[in-house]
Amino acid sequence: MSAMTHTTVQIDTHTSGPLAFDVLQSRVDDGPQLIALHGFPQGARAWQRAAAVLAERGIGVHAIDQRGYSPGARPDGVEHYGDRALSGDVLAIADQLGLSTFHLAGHDWGSHIAWVTAVENPDRVRTLTAVSIPHPTAFGRAYKEDPDQKSRSGYMKLFWQPGAAEAALLENDAAGLRDTLSDLSDADASQYVQRLQQPGALTAALNWYRAMRTNPQGLGPAKVPTTMVWSDQDRAVGRRSAELCAEYVDADFRLVELAGITHWIPELAPQPLAEAIAERIASV
User: Fold this and answer.
1) Separation in Å, CA 137 to CA 157, 181, 229
2) First to last CA, the chain
3) 147-176 pLDDT, tens per residue?
4) Domains held by the chain: number
5) What is the CA radius of gyration of the chain?
6) Burial class of 25 by CB neighbour count within 10 A (0 to 12, 13 to 18, 19+)
7) What is the mean pLDDT of residues 61-88?
């Protein structure tokens, strides 16, 4: 596995001041460039194995420790963690990296922000690979129409509760967080847990959930070539919402289903994930 290098990217925001983001990079200077977004409760580390495969395919990867996860980007207040702020970070970091256009992939919450970014900025995003989490409007439909999806999403009710969620996840040496990540290697899980045990870090990460009710509703269709990668053992996302994505892409669309894999696709299935991303990038 080729090592990823670390860089720090600073941006200025109108609402929360200057922020500094940690970015893990697999540098390929003369090939396509991919920005990769992680989910909860992970970090840019989630992408390291897929990035190694992509580098072999001549694709550079820039995996961001996003707002709330990078120690230099943890503003106080739920209002700083809505879709627009998080998507704005992606574009600002791309600017600082010199990427006028780029390919985009995201897993879990990173997938949600990738959808928002691709829908609203088709002039910047060349292709989208969404992993685990479907188009926000498709997910909203599934939540309302499919009792199975509503049941799978029940954990969010705890995450919306300030204080109660932090206690449930962090008590007993973060047993709740560790249980959530039990499918992963000890090295991966420990790195994620240790960061979210830092003062204020878990609250910042949970603010993504707590800002959900303030996010704009009814996101339109993606107009860039898109691949949705979903795994059939995902306990959080059912088949219905993944299949609905096709109705919210006005461009070439492909649904890739991974058998026998749980929610943590970047860590557990990096090879097929990288292949799906590379195929999507090659399509343009």
Assistant:
1) 19, 27, 17
2) 27
3) 999 999 999 999 999 999 999 999 999 999
4) 1
5) 17
6) buried
7) 98
